[in-house]
Structure formats: structure tokens, C-alpha cells
Design a protein that fits this description.
This protein has 232 residues and is α/β, with parallel strands linked by helices. It is built from five helices and 15 strands. The longest helix is centred in the first third of the chain and has 17 residues. The chain is globular, with a radius of gyration of 19 Å. The N and C termini lie close together (8 Å).
């Protein structure tokens, strides 16, 4: 992720294994740095990778941080510097304890109607926000012990290949396509001593209040300054 943000000219900061309080303080410092900047900032990204549940992420001290509180730090009132500018939040964390084991495809077409989804926790008064979750509400988010976040892996792959011509939403549609196509292995019975695995599936979730399309422009290596910001 660091090299990806560097390639697009982002000025970024990184926090490693912060406690819940340190997460909140780091995001507030990041917001304050944006607010005091003399540059014309075009957008910002806030990326988190942790344990979590629906609406919360967990610090290294096992204490929870409410995601809605993080997002509100960048609303039009608390961060006027970013009014009418895209604010992107990428969350790699579980949103429940359900594992999606997929379904066996049948020949006949699906006849079901619309599926009722839970209301978004993102307040409607907040504009120009784009939030990506590594999984659907109520479900676990899977990671590789060797390679880390599957979301981050496919994100970097898609962005490097398509970001020069596709806007942000279409990029994450492609990321979701890659995620859905992938079969992941999980322990069939986590409470047993054996290691019998089964196939699991993951679908990302996106919430948007953007009013315009966001394109990322790759920066040349000679550029020393940037108008983009990210917190990882």
C-alpha cells in the first residue's frame, strides 16, 4: 500500500499496532494536518487494517473505535478544508462472525426479489465520502498469513493496471470481481484439533455519497510536492 500511494503522489503517514486511543489521536492529527495545510488538497484516504465487528474496529489493546466517529472527523463542519473533496475510507476488518461458504450454481435463473440490507451507518449529512469494507455486514474478513489483506492485494493489482483510465468506483468494482472469483480456504471446524479446510467466499461492500467521479493520476518521480493525503 505504501508504494501504491507513493506512485500517486500522496503525502502519507503510517501507524503500526496502535491502541484504540492512539487510533483516534492519529486520525485527529491527520485531519488537523490537512486543515492547516496551505496546499489545495484534492482528496484524502484513510485506510485501516485490524480486527473488528459491525461499525467498529479494534485497537491493539482490544478496545473498540467507532468507525462512524472516524468518518465524522472529516465532515464539512469538522474539516472544511475538504469540503466538496472526496474522502475515501478503506476498512480491512471483520463486520461479524459469519463465513460465506458460497452456493452451488444451478442451471435455472434466480427468481428472488430485492434483498433488504441494513441501513448504512454513514450519516446522510456527510457528503463526498466513499467507504469500502473488506466484507459484507455480519461477515468475517479473511486475510492471508503470508500475504496479509486479500483486499489490499487485489486493490494494488487493480489500481496499478487500471487506475490511469478508470474512476474510483469502477476500480473497486474490479477489485470486488477479483475477490468474488477467488476461492479462500478456512478451517471447517475451528474448535477441532484437526485441520480440515473448506472453501469460503468474500464480497466487499461499498458506500458512497460522492457527487463526482474520482480519478487518480500517477505522479512522476521528479515531483517533490503533492496535494493528496492518506492515513494508513
Amino acid at each position: 500500500m505504501r508504494s501504491l500511494f507513493q506512485s500517486y503522489g500522496f503525502d502519507y503517514t503510517i501507524e503500526i499496532n496502535p491502541t484504540a486511543k492512539e487510533i483516534e489521536e492519529a486520525v485527529q492529527r491527520f485531519r488537523d494536518r490537512i486543515s492547516s495545510s496551505l496546499e489545495d488538497i484534492s482528496c484524502c484516504f484513510v485506510v485501516t487494517a485490524s480486527h473488528g465487528d459491525l461499525g467498529n474496529i479494534v485497537g491493539s489493546d482490544e478496545e473498540q473505535v467507532n468507525l462512524n466517529g472516524i468518518i465524522k472527523l472529516f465532515d464539512n463542519d469538522k474539516c472544511p478544508k475538504l469540503r466538496k473533496k472526496p474522502k475515501v475510507f478503506i476498512v480491512q476488518a471483520c463486520r461479524g462472525d459469519v463465513t460465506d461458504l458460497g452456493v452451488q450454481l444451478k442451471d435455472e435463473p434466480h427468481s428472488g426479489g430485492a434483498v433488504e440490507l441494513p441501513d448504512s451507518f454513514t450519516p446522510a449529512a456527510i457528503n463526498d465520502m466513499f467507504t469500502v469494507f473488506a466484507t459484507q455486514p455480519g461477515y468475517v474478513a479473511l486475510r492471508s498469513r503470508e500475504h496479509g489483506s486479500h483486499l489490499f492485494t487485489f486493490l494494488e493489482e487493480v489500481f496499478r493496471k487500471h487506475a490511469d483510465r478508470d474512476h474510483l468506483y469502477d476500480l473497486f468494482v474490479k477489485v470486488n470481481e477479483r475477490m468474488v472469483q477467488q476461492d479462500f480456504q478456512v478451517l471447517k471446524d475451528r474448535g477441532s484439533k484437526g485441520k480440515e479446510y473448506e472453501i469460503a467466499k468474500v464480497t466487499i461492500a461499498m458506500e458512497s455519497t460522492l457527487k463526482k467521479l474520482l480519478y487518480l493520476k500517477r505522479q512522476r518521480a521528479t515531483h517533490a510536492r503533492t496535494s493528496n493525503h492518506s492515513q494508513v
